[in-house]
Design goal:
Three copies of one chain form a homotrimer. Chain A has 271 residues and is of the alpha/beta class. Chain A has eleven helices and eight strands. The first copy, chain A, is 49% helix and 13% strand. In chain A, helix 1 packs antiparallel against helix 11 and helix 9 crosses helix 10. The longest helix of chain A is centred in the last third of the chain and has 20 residues. Chains in contact: A-B, A-C, B-C. Chains A, B, C: It catalyses: 5-(2-hydroxyethyl)-4-methylthiazole + ATP = 4-methyl-5-(2-phosphooxyethyl)-thiazole + ADP + H(+).
């Protein structure tokens, strides 16, 4: 497959990213998270630090009603159980019906059959944003996937698949990696902030999906996915200035998610 | 509704709070926690740092037997599943029968119908302490509640409801907020330590419920709820002296829960 | 019961431990964790910091298939639910059939009847390593156990039981405590690094089980259990140099799990 060289979108500028962060902090979007037991605490803390309001409503009885009035919904398949799948189906359907933006994070898609089938199934509810690493995006597109949450491929290598996925489902696809790639099927945003240490703290990618759901509650999807990525990776760059290892990095990252101003975001982001 | 101005209880003094902390550390109460997937780790770490022994026994087969010999039990409805509800019912009943003090933390009561009904249902097992923010206390009393774990009201505004709840169920009600209010239906303890950053770290309130269950294993309920609140908020004040953001605050808070001495508690608490 | 004084194994030397750590970092073993909701995040972060790749695949539909190609599997009974038990049974059986090394951490065995019965039951799938504190090892052997995750006994006191357990099931038994004892039923490795503060951070022991599963994917079981213990306790010694309390200790421990070199491990370990 050959891809025409995508033009840089005129709408995703440092100033637009800064403004998205201002919107987030002004409106404190309510983010419903249906996520895994490993990263639930971390995801809540990331959202709180950034300026959103997390709500982990992930049971089948309450998930649908909550998705109607949440600002955004995250569906993450990290540790799926029978009841969680039920809740995720209900939340995705309800979000679609109510027009609530929702993010699908198909953790380990391609590598594990049951959750891959689930992720493909809920695509019918038209996620606003799909977020994953290169292996997961490949796996969701019918490829081989990785060996768990790892990725052995780079975002560049799966850009064709990501664009096709975005066009087919009318959504934004965000692929994490050394250079994050975010596409709506036409335009491609590339963000090259961040550090490899982010892959040695569990849940950084998962919580990025939560941030995208928060931003999607206040700005349009391509900008939302880009602003979330910019905030996370710029905060990571700042955290690296004091971190000694993955423990101090994670703590500093939470600090910097709160301390990073819209102006700093615009100044430091590398588009 | 009008409330007579409640008299400050003569029993809740800085010296009494300090002595409660001495009791906690001397007896290392065993605290059974049935809590949510978001804050389970944090709650265990808070209890360990303060000087209690957490045990997360939250399955229906073991929860009842454990509640008979635990020092205190926490029931928190943050992420309830079918099996968790079952375990919580069993634990609450068993705690009541065995005379084990237990704490109900009705997370998001009022805002979410299923868990609100559950929280109202288990009131029949006579919790020793009910802990929540103003919205949750209002929701448990039949009011509207908030939009998740947030609170949009202040403890002062729901003091009447809290006192009525305490009198109706013969328990202590603790309402978290800028000034924490704790009442047994007659007397009201107000504690004005703490900082707004506590609401930007997930689980600080939830873990306070765990601390109350621990203190309730060693001193009487009004003192228990007050001592737990005093310890958490004084430790938070101390943590603020070095914190740069929510990440470093959370870490320093755990340190200070261990480092705060009974003498410091008595000196710094603002009743 | 009398035990002949066990000879120090000639194979477990500081140089061998250092080499095991080199192997771990070179091969990045994939560690499937079926563990509890309290320590899942911490366990993942410990494995990532040390140099392994965690994958929390703990549902019955995917656990068996994953155990066939994982480098090692951890089964930890901290917060068992019906679906988790199912997944653990499937994973243990599959690991046995595929020859994947697996670690059993029988949290609170002896103290709680249902999980004790489960832990005894899965012994039929021949764990490669059993890891616990003295009470849990005693409980798994039919003794009384402790009051939750605590231990009231010392590893020395249960060494006879540990050796018998190892001989009966053809596995390595690792008993955590002030001096860790690790035995294959014949030889006994004693490691006296570490600090009591490790018991005031939840999940340090649980994550040690995960580390053992990782090392067991790259070296033989007695060396694997010893290297994991040495790495955790030497990193703890280094973390203590800057820690002010349990919060900063936990953060520094993650840093030191990454920063500790094979050479430092060999130099600092006290066999």
């Amino acid at each position: 497959m050959s891809t025409p060289i995508p033009t840089a979108p005129a709408t995703i500028t440092p100033a637009a990213l800064a403004d998205a962060l201002r919107q987030l902090r002004e409106h404190t979007p309510l983010v419903q998270c249906l996520t895994n037991i490993v990263v639930a605490q971390w995801t809540a803390n990331v959202l709180l630090a950034a300026g959103a309001a997390p709500a982990m409503v992930d049971n089948p009885e309450e998930a649908g009603g909550f998705a109607q009035f949440a600002s955004g919904v995250l569906v993450n398949t990290g540790t799926p159980y029978r009841e969680t799948y039920e809740a995720m189906r209900v939340a995705a359907r309800s979000a679609q019906e109510a027009g609530t933006p929702w993010v699908l994070d198909p953790v380990a898609a391609g590598g594990l059959p049951v959750r891959t089938a689930f992720a493909v199934e809920v695509l019918e509810h038209r996620p606003t944003i799909i977020r994953g690493n290169a292996s997961e995006i490949s796996g969701l597109s019918g490829g081989a996937g990785g060996r768990g949450a790892d990725s052995t491929a780079s975002p560049e290598e799966v850009l064709d698949l990501a664009q096709e996925l975005a066009r087919t489902h009318g959504c934004v696809v965000a692929v994490s990696g050394a250079v994050d790639h975010i596409t709506d099927g036409e335009q491609v945003v590339r963000i090259s902030n961040g550090d490899a240490i982010m892959t040695r703290v569990t849940g950084v990618g998962c919580s990025l999906g939560g941030l995208m759901a928060g931003f999607a509650g206040v700005v349009e999807p391509l900008l939302a996915a880009s602003a979330a990525t910019a905030l996370m990776t710029v905060a990571a760059d700042k955290a690296m200035e004091t971190a000694k290892g993955p423990g101090t990095f994670a703590v500093a990252l939470l600090d910097q998610l709160e301390l990073t101003t819209p102006e700093e975001l615009a100044e430091r982001v590398r588009l």
